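Form P-L/3: holo structure prediction, ligand MIG.
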Amino acid sequence: MKAFVLDENITKYTFGKPFDTETVFLKGTEITRENIEFFKINKEEKFNLTYNMDISQIVFGLGENQRGINKRGGIYESFCKDEPNHTPNKKSLYGAHNFIVLDGNEKFGVFVDFPGKVVFDVGFSNNNELKISLGEENFDIYIINGKNARSIVRKFLSLIGESYVPPKWAFGYQQSRWSYKNENTVLNIADSFIKNDIPCDAIYLDIDYMDKFKDFTIDSDNFPYFESFIKRMKNKGFRLVPIIDAGVKIEKGYNVYEEGVEKGYFCTDTEGKNFTAAVWPGLCHFPDFLNKEARRWFGLKYKILANIGIEGFWNDMNEPALFYTKRGLKEALNEVKECEGKNLDVYSFFNLRSKFSNISSADEDYKSIYHNVDGNKVNHYKVHNMYGYNMLKSASEGLKEVYNNKRFLLFSRASYIGMHKYGGIWTGDNHSWWEHILLNIKMMASLNMCGFLYIGADTGGFSTDANSQLVIRWTQFSIFTPLFRNHSSMGTRNQEPFSFDDKTTDVLRNVIKFRYALIPYIYSEYMKAVINNDMYFIPICFEYDDKTSRRIENQLLVGGSIMIAPVYEENSAGRYVYCPEDMLLWKVSDFKNRKFNVVKKGHMYLDVELDEIPIFIRKDNILVIGNTASNVDSLDNRELNVIAFVENKAEYIYYDDDGISFDYKKGNYSKITIKIEKTKNDYNIDVKNSKNSFLNKLNFEIVDQEGTLSKKTIYI
Ligand code: MIG
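OUTPUT (holo model):
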């Protein structure tokens, strides 16, 4: 073991020869250390590290996973998995996020930088024991000290570097469904948004748009005029966002396949041949995204679509998902032959069945894949979690070459910490289940802790049929997620906002319009999180450290000014809420028609009608909202509304920029500081304008502790 000091609070411990994941660039200075802080190392059997947790200790982190904001009581396996059934027993989903923060008598963060399988047993096997197990002794582990969970997370975020920033239009509402199968279907969806007066910025193209599921091709029967179709859609106010999958179809004459073979850019198998497995296109090879040249080659393919006007992509199946390999299929079919004609006992029958149900994404297949990393042959199983990460990196680097200083939308299904530099993630195939709204709420803050800011779930649920209530309640939560997309699976009930009855359409119209009014705040908080290495979704107890707040899992702080308490239970007309201090409650239904109530610190049952979204403005804080529009490009926010709950004084920094370019990196953004101070009978308002701002008018609605509302207007 070697130890390196990275800064006074961060120490890196290197075991063996770790694979460079490119998640942390800081090298630090070597020091002598006998032991790693906090942990006991055990080298018997599997390499593992153990730590005794105290009773009150909360374990935060682990990003995209089952269970709560507090991860205690569970066992988790970091190994990116195509797992379409997110039931509570699942140990792995699509992402691998090896960062935790322990918050009790001792407070520290741990990042295990290892791209193979890592198991986090957080008091599952043994109540008070945290056990981190790795298959081998080649990894880096970072220990981060800090005075509280929030500061530890912020140190970690500064260590892994600045997050991806999408274009502003990607903060608008986005509509997706697997099975928008031709131009007419997509045009009809767009027209329905227009006809129903529901804002929308993007419509997604799932695998249906491709020719036989081949990446960078178009099905010319169903999308015969693709280039002009993109333009037509843009003129209507919609961007198209196509999917790109990891597997490349084996087909003579298909240029991506032929070039990949010729240049040796695909992953290989144990015999050195191109590794083959079936996914949507049938038998495929898999680009070796860990190979620099292959990564660049595939990344530049995006040009084909970018050059004709596509401004965003989503990457799927990049764990990589494998439906079956010849090996797996052969084994299963042999079992069938074995069993044929026999009088099977039930155990043999279950064994036969499991041969098929375990055929996809099998460890044995992953163990037979090889990468070429700078000329070295590397077994896939040891670096499995790098695959999706590098697929997104490939797209990001390719698109940067095409768009130069223009931002693009990009997100992935599989991920590893560090990938946040290149794009966002969506949380994959959830279900139209109420339980999955709650899971969505809990996951968001954990993902932020691991660096992922541009995130969201399939609103309304991907698999199984949604009813109107579920879509309403889910959308009411999703208006706060940076990636706000309704997506559903082929074969399920349609769940676009106009797919139910008129009443539902009316409610969803208001909800989605409100999202657009919130964009000034959402964007400002998102960008401040990016620039300041901070979070956007924040657990209540990161700000309020009382005993109750430490256990709240179903409410969140969104940015610095507000707390949300979403309704996630069927047929409920309200929910219990805990207010850690006095707050200003705004139940939003029609956002232009505002009523505020001061609610007292403590527990309460809150009535929340189906068309209402409760928002709590924190004491001495400010929420800015703007106007709504049919899409982000048409928003006019020269005039904003400032809603404030002021006991003494409140201050808000409102951030904005062009929403298009990377010029913010050169300091080209506006920051407006709004200060409100309560005087004896009035308020002093101070607005510091910044030279880049377009803002010219602020309408203030200030409520005091007694609930008295004062209105003021300020011209800038
Ligand atoms: O095996 O492209 O998670 O969003 O609609 C399913 C079809 C493949 C999985 C993605 C989902 C997408 C679907 N894909």
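COMMENT: The mean pLDDT is 97.
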